[in-house]
């Protein structure tokens, strides 16, 4: 059963330099208990695409298309409807635990706030009890002691556990993790990934994992969606995409996947940078950086997202190799 | 940015810092263009140029003398002949406002020049030498800073006696600590840089280091502070003259005109309104120019002020490993 | 925490001693004989001798300082050259008027600054923001005494709503006290309010862009809860410090505003003592203003470290 169904999601933003087309028609589905990874360089629109779901973008952003969470349409929903979903049906974990917690409020207050806002607990006292349970659940030692502490008194890993506890407070059916491990060091990163996997198993939560780290994708995701220039350029199961990448961009990304034997610093295998969303190129968005450019239509026509192979789950948007499929 | 160094030592013409601060060098010309591209700064610069011109040619501009008493023309409302009206002695208010510009600008420029030189020197030495030099100098600045500005100026005048010159000294002393603090923190920022340490190890003399390498770094915040302090100094001169401790009769001064006009406020509002508007216009221009200069010269100053209150950790990079 | 408080208090004490030296030096820097200057040309020898002896002016300078300083610490600031009254008494008489004015002014300032600054930050580049920016820019450029005169012109003269000046003690007539307070408090409050509005605006703007605000929204909190607990609480913390410093600056404005409104406070006392060359009174007033400034700053720093959990760590 699908928890989230996104169809033709679009996000536009008026800027001083013209209209920014940040997300340009995104389709994906997340089933209960499933992890979908959205991968791309910074500026590919992946974070914006999930913020749009919860209405967390600035007021002047225009969101189009459809996003159904269970039986509710999120695009165009009123602020009060969205509020009942935020932190309740959908939990969200952000990138930097240093800044995503309020420095001047206690951990206890920040965890119980959401519980009280959604009337999940009858009293402040009960909220405190539940908050302590949640902190224990995410593996924090001495959860009661942590309730009265302030964020700066905790380590980065502990803070991210707190952020996860906050996201889990409303027993969400969907968890969105936006670069949730990027700011953490490698061992803590592994612990957080394990934690989310365990909670997902226990509660059957669907997870959308936004990342630019392909190592994280390989370790956690069931399916992967590669984003470029606000579009999906390739999606499929992790195995399909990693074993037989069809899009030149995906191949580039995988070619730059750092391995343990030869750790590379960053994703630099594809020369150039993504186009600014105010100035997307005509034709295939990846065309200016594409090492192949093997088709006359590349510069003029956006290639459609069409099946690759026979599985029916693997799709790519490229003219390259289209004939052989 | 660094091209604006030469300004720091000057006293006289600080009134036009923003306008003429750019010596013939490209970076500051670009900065000047950037400054004047913001409408508030450009408007402020125009007003300041006009006020300076009025002050320079006041005798030619003013329709009448400052003390041309004409009892037949007492308390005339604004109108043809007396555009700003006349006061209780029949003196032309417009002429007195025009002739008062010089005093305001002079006191402002000299007082701020005094604070600038004294404050920058104190800040340079305190920041550069650190230790007891720093402690002694800055605690002394704290002492001066602890008195309400006007009250300290009043106290200094109590010792020196009333008058325009003493008002300049009093205001100059009052605003010295601000320049010392601004300069010191800028010096602390560069004292330990590789460049300064390298120059030091090659045997450059302290004084040479201070004025050639350290001072230029302090210039942007000091220039911003100069403009803002000019605003304060004009206000302070007006306040001192208002209470009778600044400019003495028969010299016209905006602050004095206000205190003279106050008694006639019910009968003749114009006596107090026009000199007040003149003060507001001049002070507003210095403030706007200060804001503009800050945006151009020292954009991080604002955020640094605020960032100091935020979490020490700050953001980490986006790198995963 | 205690280390910080101790260090900060010690620093304030050092500065206070320095302030005392400056205040003491005032009388002794005056060229000539201060008592003679104060008494003018017509005085009798007996009064002159009594005052000189009472002021201890025949003693060595250092002895004089320690006598005066010792007195000041115990609340004895000497006697007025003019009236012969104890300076401490003169100051205490004037204190309620100035304190009323200062507190009322800061209340006015905050009543303007917090709503206007917050509204401006919540709708940047809106009409409210534009008006707030222009008004606060003008507000900091207007001399207090001129603002006072203009308010008298309109609200005391033309409209006749409030008295043009004079102070009514609270104990005599609370309503009259409040009415007498309105115009002077608004005068100084508008100027401080302008500074605080600008600060509030930038502080709220910064808090709004903080990432924890997004976390709070993602929790499903209502707009009001987000604003109160995750924006304003963070933004207004630094306002505590700035308000304290403003209160201290406000004392400076109060000196002149007291003249405009014939307000029998410390500023007026200080100015009268300058005109009368009554140096012990000026000395006392100056010392008290500086003391209040130092104490306010100290309290604000200590309070801030209590309010912001990050500092006490």
UniProtKB/TrEMBL annotation, chain A:
Membrane topology field: Peripheral membrane protein
Keyword entries, A-Z: ATP-binding, Cell membrane, Membrane, Nucleotide-binding, Transport
Sequence ranges assigned to domain ABC transporter in this UniProt record: 4-254
Transmembrane segments: none
Source taxon at top rank: Bacteria
Compartments it resides in: Cell membrane
CDD domains in UniProt: ABC_NikE_OppD_transporters (cd03257)
Recorded coiled-coil stretches: none
UniProt GO MF annotations: ATP binding
Xref: Pfam families: ABC_tran, oligo_HPY
Family matches, as InterPro entries: AAA+_ATPase, ABC_Ni/Peptide_Import, ABC_transporter-like_ATP-bd, ABC_transporter-like_CS, Oligopep_ABC_C, P-loop_NTPase
Record-linked PANTHER family: DIPEPTIDE TRANSPORT ATP-BINDING PROTEIN DPPD, OLIGOPEPTIDE TRANSPORT ATP-BINDING PROTEIN APPD
Family: Belongs to the ABC transporter superfamily.
Protein name in UniProt: ABC transporter ATP-binding protein
Gene source species: Kineococcus halophytocola
Upper classification of the organism: Bacteria, Bacillati, Actinomycetota, Actinomycetes, Kineosporiales
Automatic annotation (TrEMBL), chain C:
Natural source organism: Kineococcus halophytocola
Entry keywords, A to Z: Cell membrane, Membrane, Transmembrane, Transmembrane helix, Transport
ABC transmembrane type-1 domain location: 95-304
Family annotation (Pfam families): BPD_transp_1, BPD_transp_1_N
Main localization (coarse): membrane
Assigned protein family: Belongs to the binding-protein-dependent transport system permease family.
Localization terms from the record: Cell membrane
Name of the protein in its database record: ABC transporter permease
Record PROSITE patterns: ABC_TM1
CDD domains reported in the protein's UniProt record: TM_PBP2
Record field: transmembrane: 12-30, 95-116, 145-164, 176-196, 236-261, 281-304
């Amino acid at each position: 059963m699908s928890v989230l169904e996104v169809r033709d999601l679009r996000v536009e933003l008026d800027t001083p330099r013209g209209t920014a087309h940040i997300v340009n028609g995104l389709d994906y589905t997340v089933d209960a208990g499933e992890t979908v990874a959205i991968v791309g360089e910074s500026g590919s629109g992946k974070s914006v695409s999930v913020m749009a779901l919860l209405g967390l973008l600035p007021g002047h952003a225009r969101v189009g298309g459809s996003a159904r969470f269970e039986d509710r349409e999120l695009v165009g929903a009123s602020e009060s409807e969205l509020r009942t979903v935020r932190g309740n049906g959908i939990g969200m974990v952000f990138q930097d635990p240093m800044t995503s917690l309020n420095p001047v409020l206690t951990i206890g207050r920040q965890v119980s706030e959401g519980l009280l806002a959604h009337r999940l607990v009858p009293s402040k006292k009960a909220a405190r009890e539940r908050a302590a349970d949640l902190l224990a659940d995410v593996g924090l030692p001495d959860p009661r002691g942590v309730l009265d502490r302030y964020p700066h008194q905790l380590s980065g890993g502990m803070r991210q556990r707190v952020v996860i506890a906050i996201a889990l407070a409303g027993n969400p059916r969907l968890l969105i993790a936006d670069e949730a491990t990027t700011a953490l060091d490698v061992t803590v990163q592994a612990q957080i990934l394990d934690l989310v996997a365990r909670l997902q198993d226990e509660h059957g939560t669907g997870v959308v994992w936004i990342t630019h780290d392909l190592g994280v994708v390989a370790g956690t995701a069931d399916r992967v969606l590669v984003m470029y220039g606000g579009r999906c350029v390739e999606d499929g199961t992790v195995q399909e995409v990693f074993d037989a990448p069809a899009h030149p961009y995906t191949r580039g990304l995988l070619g730059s996947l750092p391995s343990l034997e030869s750790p590379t610093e960053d994703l630099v295998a594809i020369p150039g940078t993504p186009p600014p969303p105010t100035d997307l190129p005509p034709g295939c968005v990846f065309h200016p950086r594409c090492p192949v450019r093997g088709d006359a239509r590349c510069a003029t026509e956006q290639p459609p997202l069409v099946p690759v192979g026979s599985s029916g789950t693997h799709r790519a948007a490229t003219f390259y190799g289209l004939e052989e499929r | 940015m660094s091209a604006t160094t030469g300004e720091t030592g000057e006293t006289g013409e600080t009134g036009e810092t923003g306008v003429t601060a750019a010596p013939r060098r490209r970076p500051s010309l670009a900065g000047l263009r950037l400054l004047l591209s913001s409408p508030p700064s450009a408007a402020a610069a125009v007003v300041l140029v006009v006020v300076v011109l009025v002050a320079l040619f006041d005798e030619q501009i003013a329709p009448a003398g400052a003390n041309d008493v004409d009892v037949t023309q007492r308390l005339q409302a604004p109108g043809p002949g007396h555009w700003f009206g006349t006061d209780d002695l029949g003196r032309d208010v417009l002429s007195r406002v025009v002739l008062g510009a010089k005093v305001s600008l002079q006191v402002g420029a000299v007082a701020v020049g005094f604070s600038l030189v004294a404050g920058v020197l104190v800040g340079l030495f305190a920041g550069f030498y650190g230790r007891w030099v720093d402690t002694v100098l800055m605690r002394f600045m704290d002492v001066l800073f602890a008195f309400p500005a006007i009250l300290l100026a009043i106290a200094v005048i109590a010792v020196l006696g009333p008058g325009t010159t003493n008002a300049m000294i009093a205001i100059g002393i009052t605003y010295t600590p601000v320049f010392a603090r601004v300069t010191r923190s800028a010096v602390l920022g560069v004292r330990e840089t590789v460049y300064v340490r390298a120059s030091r190890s090659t045997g450059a003399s302290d004084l040479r280091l201070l004025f050639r390498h350290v001072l230029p770094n302090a210039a942007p915040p000091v220039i911003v502070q100069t403009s803002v302090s000019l605003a304060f100094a004009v206000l302070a001169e007006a306040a001192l003259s208002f209470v009778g401790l600044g400019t003495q009769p028969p010299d016209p001064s905006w602050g004095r005109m206000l205190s003279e006009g106050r008694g006639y406020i019910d009968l003749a509002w114009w006596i107090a309104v026009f000199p007040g508007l003149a003060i507001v216009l001049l002070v507003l221009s210095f403030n706007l120019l200060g804001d503009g200069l800050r945006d151009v010269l020292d954009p991080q100053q604002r955020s640094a002020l605020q960032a100091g209150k935020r979490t020490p950790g700050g953001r980490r990079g986006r790198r995963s490993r | 925490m205690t280390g910080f408080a101790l260090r900060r208090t010690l620093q304030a004490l050092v500065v206070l001693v320095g302030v005392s030296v400056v205040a003491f030096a005032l009388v002794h820097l005056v060229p000539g004989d201060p008592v003679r200057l104060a008494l003018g040309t017509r005085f009798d020898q007996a009064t002159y001798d009594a005052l000189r002896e009472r002021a201890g002016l025949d003693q060595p300078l250092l002895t004089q300082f320690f006598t005066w300083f010792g007195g000041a610490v115990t609340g004895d600031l000497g006697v007025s050259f003019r009236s012969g009254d104890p300076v401490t008494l003169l100051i205490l008489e004037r204190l309620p008027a100035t304190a009323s004015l200062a507190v009322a002014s800061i209340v006015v300032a905050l009543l303007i600054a917090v709503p206007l600054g917050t509204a401006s930050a919540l709708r940047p580049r809106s009409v409210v923001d534009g008006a707030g920016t222009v008004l606060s820019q003008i507000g900091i450029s207007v001399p207090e005494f001129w603002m006072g005169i203009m308010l008298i012109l309109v609200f005391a003269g033309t409209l006749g709503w409030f008295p043009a000046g004079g102070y009514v003690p609270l104990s005599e007539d609370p309503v009259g006290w409040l009415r007498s307070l309105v115009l002077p408090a608004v005068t100084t409050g508008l100027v401080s309010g302008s500074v605080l509005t600008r600060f509030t605006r930038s502080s709220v703007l910064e808090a709004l862009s903080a990432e924890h605000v997004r976390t709070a929204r993602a929790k499903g909190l209502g707009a009001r809860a987000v604003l109160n607990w995750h924006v304003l609480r963070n933004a207004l913390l630094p306002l505590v410090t700035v308000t304290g410093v403003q209160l201290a600056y406000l004392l400076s404005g109060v000196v002149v505003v007291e003249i405009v409104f014939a307000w029998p406070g410390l500023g007026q006392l200080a100015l009268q003592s300058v005109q009368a060359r009554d140096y012990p009174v000026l000395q006392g007033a100056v010392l008290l203003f500086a003391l209040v400034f130092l104490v306010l700053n100290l309290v604000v720093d200590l309070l801030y470290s209590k309010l912001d959990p990050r500092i006490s760590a």
